[in-house]
Amino acid sequence: xAHIDYYLATISPWCYLGGTRLEDIAARHGATITxxxxxxxxxFDRTGGVGPAKRHVSRQEYRNQEIPRWADHxxxxxxxxxxxxxxxxxxxxxxxxxxxxxxxxxxxxLVHAIMRACWVQDHDISDDAVLRNLLQTHxxxxxxxDTGLLVGAxxxxxxxxxxxxxxxxxxxxxxxxxxxxxFWGQDRLDFLDRHLATL
Length: 199
Description:
The protein is an alpha+beta fold. The protein has one domain: Glutaredoxin. It contains 10 helices and 4 strands, in the order βααβαααααααββα. Strands 2-1-3-4 form a 4-stranded mixed beta sheet. α5 packs across α9 (149-166). The longest helix has 18 residues, at 57-74.
């Protein structure tokens, strides 16, 4: 059975645009997923990238055209200028980590719902009340926002180190652990699908 390490940033528009296609692909091939939220700005700094705000204006302008193109292509709602962005990624990342450790709920649904809360619903995904509601809606104990704080912080930091060591340099980044095949960007999910079909 193949296993996918999914490095993600909860405020990444590209992770949001991935939707639940990763989960659909994994289910089709009997693959498992480990969700590894991290601080993507630190990942850029560590691997030679540049955060969106520091990029040349031509890159920023292209990004502003490409995001709505992809949203339209994928049929996903999206507010290109959400009310709470950028926002502290840590609390929502801790919630995902705690939920993954606890098990029992719809983790993929939770991950997408957190990003949808940011990019569609204009919710503050660093707010504990927002996260408690999303956890409960997806079958997890809302108290994980509090009880998962320490383990979440430790894993969040560790995920960054693991991403750098594994060769990830942006998000979303998918690595098939068994074959060390790496796929950067939601626009590479078809390639991931094709690769899993060969295993």
